[in-house]
Structures are given as C-alpha cells and as structure tokens.
Design goal:
alpha+beta; 5 helices; 7-stranded mixed sheet; Glutaredoxin
Amino acid sequence: MALQIGDSAPDFKLFSSELKEVTLSDYRGKKLVIQFFPMAFTGVCTTQLCTMRDSFGYYTGMNAEVVGISVDSPFTLAKFKEDQSYQFPLLSDFNKEVSKAYGAFYEDFVFNLKGVSKRAAFVIDEQGTIIHTEVLEDAGNMPDFAAIKNAIEG
C-alpha cells in the first residue's frame, strides 16, 4: 500500500556518497526532503537535483534538510555529487530496500533494466511523519517543487 500523508516515514540506514552511514533518525527535529531519482548522470535526474541544489538556501532557512536517494553505488553518487556541486547528501539504496519501502521502485525500467528507484519526493516533519508524498510513474516528469515548499512552510 502506498505511503500517505500522516504515515510514519519508514526508517532507513544508507551509505552516503562520502561513505558515511545516514539514517532517518539523524534528521529528527528538522524537516527532511527526500528526492528519489532513477539514475545518476541522466538528464531529468540532473535537472531534478540541480533544482534542489539551486534552492538549497531556501530549505536550510526553513530548518529543512535535503537528501537524494537512488540505487546507484556510493562511488557513482560521489562523482555525480562532485560534478554537479550538490550541497546535500546523495544516498545509495544499492540493495533497493528503501525505494521499495517508500513505494518508489520500478521492477522494470527502460532498456530492460530491473530494480530502479522511481522519481519521487517526500517531505518528513520533525517527528518523522510524512507531510508530502509524490511518486511519479513517468520518469520523464518532475516533482512538484511548489508543493514541496508549501509542505515545508506548513
């Protein structure tokens, strides 16, 4: 069943592009924007995360943090982060557990690829409750960034 506003966000423990362990509980007391994306170095994914990069100051000014999650390896994500100057962590869901837990997972993707994160956006409040959820079936579409900001402003 898809996650809904008001649900507790599924906990996670993932490794960042800096090879540091990151958990959902690390963000308690702050709002968290989670941006799931299918694959590093692709056009739409780069645009999605660059939009977050370019408005990063807005989020930090609202006591909110941002993370990006994909099934890419931490090493691929490290290069992607470096190339695009992202200020926020990119987390590797290489084992695909978190993407599945959030309902942001393609069993089958383009080019016969199996097991890729869907493009999705979640906003989690200071207590770990989902206050915005958007899972996109078409990987060519972008999250509703205005709705994400509205959820943070509450």
